[in-house]
């Protein structure tokens, strides 16, 4: 069994913070292809196009027939054949995390693999394999106990591969709407120590304010993402004690492009969602990066909740989809930057949200609690991308199969 | 498969070891030149006189044998670059001998050289191979220690071998090293020290690991006539084998390519394990020494503990093993670590050892093992060297 995490002591400002190294980052293109699939929570390996045999490590041609290879979902079982505890390394990241346990695993899918081991896994055990992403965004096979064990998620080796909210302090950027409120409550339930809940206009009351602000662990903060000094001011106060940022800010108005669109809505949307995202990143990314390997409550993740229609556009919501598209683009850039500092950048993709701004959209719509659940899940699993609800899942799978067709379907 | 043709018409001579140093500010080019300078001192030959050059190195990048030839002023009519690390000595020997035998070349300088600058070990590991970069080193970055720890963990369980058995091999090699003035390890190693060493990657402990260092090794392959003209003692090649990526189906490595081809080696050599006066086997970790002893035909794997108990592996013992101390006690100079088994075997059969002489040595078994591309050593080779003419 795993020892439960103990709350960290108050940080001593005189002690030098451990530098946030990332594990060795050099990877082949095939390994990167494995990473993007792992980032969506898949357990994939390559199979030979002729024989269907599975192969690992990532290759560019089949070792069985020299045919090409295809990534496919695989059974997750494995047996640990051999185990070692590494006590010496020349790598700066692992040196700070010794001892480190790895093993040789016979995957049910066929190949052998060297894998990271959960603390409850021993030689000879049957295990459940996951492909996690490491702090640099690279794929990592991780052997979990086959059955749930006490405090399993608190395993120190596993926690390096997740951004679990337990004992972490989270900034949720917009608490005025139902999404931010649902996310805040779900994070507290998942063990977050504090949720700093943003309020863009402290002079205006909002629905549910008394209830949400009365919850233990919620700390209301003034944060207006359209205002650079408001964002900077909050970062100056909180930058060193926020471990996770969840950006729930949205500005959705119905609009066309040539017909029925209001330029001012588009401008406000871009200012809130796009420029706002950059303000938020510029304010918080440096301080978070400085604390990315700072023990139990190391800074871990930057989560952005955006519409799946950023991938496709959306008739009737063209302006909002344009803002979401720009947002996804900025998030990809930020992910590349943060991969060097050990902070995960995650996207939660939503369908039309079941709120006052989507009254004309027929169900199924995405409930705020579904978004909250997806935020917690993406953090606990350490994924890069997750869909909140069935609408987003449907659009993403159609988009992955045929992007241009999906764009046409969503706009005509 | 037809019996291997003999190596008549090719001989091996002039073993060279450029003394190792732990860290060197010099380059692989410098170390290669140092080995060639020593060959020159022994033979009186200069850059224009070698018409063959066979080269192995990890740290000569961005240069290959091509860059090295121009850097060092050679103009060979035959050259080769061997990228197989621990198997490179046997492979260089085989290739050069066939080229000499066929008349493609008269005299081949075979050289392995690597430097070890501060931090070059980490950098070499980080970019060692595609599979290790994708699928081994990001797993705790234990380097070869962790990979061989997994192999050792499995091997010990499969064949009932304990650390105390490995201890005997390592302690004997250290004994052998004490007579070798160029060995990096100069202090005796006791059984107790071995057993109490700190863990590096369990069950691999400190004295199971080699010391990375800088150094160079070299030898000459030429015709018997040329060797006579130069006044060099010679050995002949009684037989060789080579195999890569054998037994890919084994879950964790418990055998190497030798196991597949060993009968061919003994058949070609018309000798057997019992005829060997010593063995010079690749010894990055003692588990690989044990694996080789079994795969090369000295005993069955499940009899290894008894075999180790019954034999004395020191220079005066029943089966002298790695008589220069091996890499475990002399140091591992990169690709030169794959050559030192050949040069030491050669020195012993030519009766010009660095340290103590194996009494009446005539036959040496030399075995190489190289390149942990992913989870196991991929390249294996072995050769039997037999004393021919002492001059």
CA gyration radius of chain B, whole angstroms: 19 Å
Determine the CATH superfamily of the largest domain in chain A.
NAD(P)-binding Rossmann-like Domain
Helix segment tally of chain B? 14
Could you say what the CATH architecture of the largest domain in chain A is? Answer: 3-Layer(aba) Sandwich
Shape descriptor of chain A? globular
Structural class by helix and strand composition of chain B: alpha/beta
Calculate the terminal CA-CA distance of chain A, rounded to whole Å. Answer: 55 Å
How many beta-strand runs of chain B?
11
- Tell me the greatest interface: A-B, 38 and 38 residues
Find the CATH topology of the largest domain in chain A.
Rossmann fold
Mean pLDDT of chain A: 96
Oligomeric state of this protein: heterodimer
Main CATH class of the largest domain in chain B: Alpha Beta
Mean pLDDT of chain B: 96
What's the CATH topology label of the largest domain in chain B?
Peroxisomal Thiolase, Chain A, domain 1
Biggest sheet descriptor of chain B? 9 strands, mixed
Please describe the topology of this protein.
The complex is a heterodimer of chains A (412) and B (391).
Chain A: H1 29-38, E1 44-48, E2 54-55, E3 69-73, E4 77-86, H2 92-95, E5 100-107, E6 112-117, E7 126-133, E8 139-145, H3 156-159, E9 169-172, H4 178-189, E10 194-199, H5 209-213, E11 218-222, H6 228-238, E12 244-247, H7 263-290, E13 301-307, H8 318-338, E14 344-350, H9 368-381, E15 385-388, H10 389-401, H11 403-411
Parallel strand pairs in A: 6-8, 9-10, 9-12, 10-11, 12-13, 13-14, 14-15
Antiparallel strand pairs in A: 1-2, 1-3, 4-5, 4-7, 5-6, 7-8
Chain B: E1 11-21, H1 28-43, E2 52-56, H2 65-71, E3 78-81, H3 88-101, E4 107-114, H4 120-126, H5 130-135, H6 143-159, H7 163-177, H8 191-196, E5 199-201, E6 204-205, E7 214-222, H9 224-230, E8 234-244, H10 258-269, E9 278-281, H11 286-295, H12 304-310, H13 326-330, H14 340-349, E10 363-372, E11 377-389
Parallel strand pairs in B: 2-3, 2-4, 9-10
Antiparallel strand pairs in B: 1-7, 1-8, 4-7, 5-6, 8-11, 10-11
Helix pairs in contact in B: 7-11
């Amino acid at each position: 069994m795993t020892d439960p995490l103990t709350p960290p002591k108050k940080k001593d400002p005189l002690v030098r913070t451990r530098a946030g190294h990332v594990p060795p980052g050099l990877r082949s293109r095939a390994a990167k292809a494995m990473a993007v699939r792992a980032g969506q929570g898949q357990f994939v390996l390559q199979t030979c196009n002729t024989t269907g045999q599975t192969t690992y490590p990532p290759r560019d041609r089949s070792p069985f027939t020299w045919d090409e290879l295809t990534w496919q979902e695989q059974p997750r079982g494995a047996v640990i054949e051999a185990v070692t505890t590494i006590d010496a390394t020349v790598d700066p990241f692992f040196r700070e995390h010794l001892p480190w346990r790895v093993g040789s695993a016979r995957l049910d899918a066929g190949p052998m693999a060297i894998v990271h081991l959960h603390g409850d896994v021993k030689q000879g055990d049957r295990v459940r394999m996951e492909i996690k992403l490491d702090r640099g965004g690279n794929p990592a096979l991780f052997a979990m106990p086959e059955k749930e064990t006490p405090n399993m998620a608190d395993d120190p080796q596993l926690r390096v591969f997740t951004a679990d909210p337990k004992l972490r302090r989270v900034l949720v950027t917009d608490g005025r709407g139902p999404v931010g409120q649902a996310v805040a409550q779900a994070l507290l339930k998942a063990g977050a120590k504090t949720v700093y809940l943003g309020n863009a206009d402290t002079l205006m009351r909002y629905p549910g304010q008394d209830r949400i602000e009365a919850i233990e662990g919620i700390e209301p903060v003034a944060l207006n993402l359209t205002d650079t000094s408001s964002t900077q001011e909050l970062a100056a106060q909180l930058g060193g004690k926020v471990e996770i940022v969840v950006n729930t800010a949205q500005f959705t108005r119905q609009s066309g492009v040539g017909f029925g669109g209001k330029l001012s809505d588009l401008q406000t949307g871009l200012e809130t969602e796009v420029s706002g995202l950059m303000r938020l990143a510029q304010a918080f990314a440096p301080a978070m990066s400085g604390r990315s390997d700072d023990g139990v409550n190391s800074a871990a993740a930057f989560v952005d909740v955006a519409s799946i229609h950023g991938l496709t556009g959306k008739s009737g919501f063209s302006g909002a989809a344009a803002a979401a598209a720009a947002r996804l683009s900025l998030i990809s850039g930020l992910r590349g930057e943060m991969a060097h500092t050990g902070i995960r950048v995650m996207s939660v993709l939503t369908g039309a949200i079941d709120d006052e701004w989507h009254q004309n959209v027929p169900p199924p719509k995405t409930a705020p609690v579904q978004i909250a659940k997806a935020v917690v899940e993406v953090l606990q699993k350490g994924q890069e991308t997750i869909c909140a609800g069935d609408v987003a899942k449907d659009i993403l799978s159609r988009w992955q199969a045929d992007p241009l067709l999906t764009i046409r379907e969503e706009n005509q | 498969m037809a019996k291997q043709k003999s190596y008549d018409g090719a001989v091996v001579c002039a073993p060279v070891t450029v003394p190792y140093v732990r860290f060197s500010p010099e380059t692989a080019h410098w170390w290669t030149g140092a080995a060639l300078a020593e060959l020159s001192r022994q033979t009186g030959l200069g850059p224009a006189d070698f018409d063959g050059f066979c080269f192995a190195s990890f740290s000569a990048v961005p240069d290959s044998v091509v860059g090295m030839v121009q850097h060092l002023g050679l103009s060979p009519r035959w050259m080769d670059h061997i990228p197989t690390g621990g198997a490179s000595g046997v492979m260089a020997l085989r290739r050069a001998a066939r080229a000499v035998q066929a008349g493609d070349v008269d005299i081949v300088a075979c050289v392995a050289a690597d430097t070890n600058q501060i931090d070059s070990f980490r950098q070499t590991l980080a970019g060692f191979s595609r599979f290790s970069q994708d699928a081994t080193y990001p797993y705790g970055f234990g380097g070869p220690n962790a990979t061989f720890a997994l192999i050792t963990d499995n091997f010990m369980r499969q064949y009932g071998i304990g650390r105390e058995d490995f201890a005997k091999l390592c302690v004997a090699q250290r004994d052998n090293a004490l007579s070798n003035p160029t060995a990096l390890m100069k202090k005796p190693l006791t059984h107790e020290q071995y057993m109490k060493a700190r863990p590096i990657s369990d069950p691999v402990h400190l004295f199971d690991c080699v010391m990375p260092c800088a150094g160079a090794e070299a030898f000459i392959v030429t015709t018997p006539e040329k060797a006579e003209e130069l006044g060099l003692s010679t050995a002949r090649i009684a037989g060789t084998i080579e195999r890569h990526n054998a037994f890919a189906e084994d879950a964790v490595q418990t055998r190497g390519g030798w196991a597949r081809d060993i009968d061919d080696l003994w058949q070609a050599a018309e000798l057997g394990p019992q005829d060997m006066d010593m063995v010079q086997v690749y010894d990055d970790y003692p588990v690989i020494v044990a694996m080789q002893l079994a795969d090369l035909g000295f005993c069955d794997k499940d009899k290894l503990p008894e075999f180790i108990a019954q034999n004395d592996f020191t220079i005066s013992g029943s089966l002298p093993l790695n008589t220069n101390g091996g890499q475990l006690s002399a140091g591992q100079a990169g690709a030169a670590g794959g050559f030192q088994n050949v040069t030491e075997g050669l020195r012993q059969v030519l009766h010009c050892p660095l340290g103590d002489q194996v009494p009446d040595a005539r036959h040496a078994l030399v075995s190489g093992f190289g390149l942990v591309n992913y989870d196991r050593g991929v390249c294996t080779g072995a050769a039997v060297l037999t004393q021919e003419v002492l001059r």
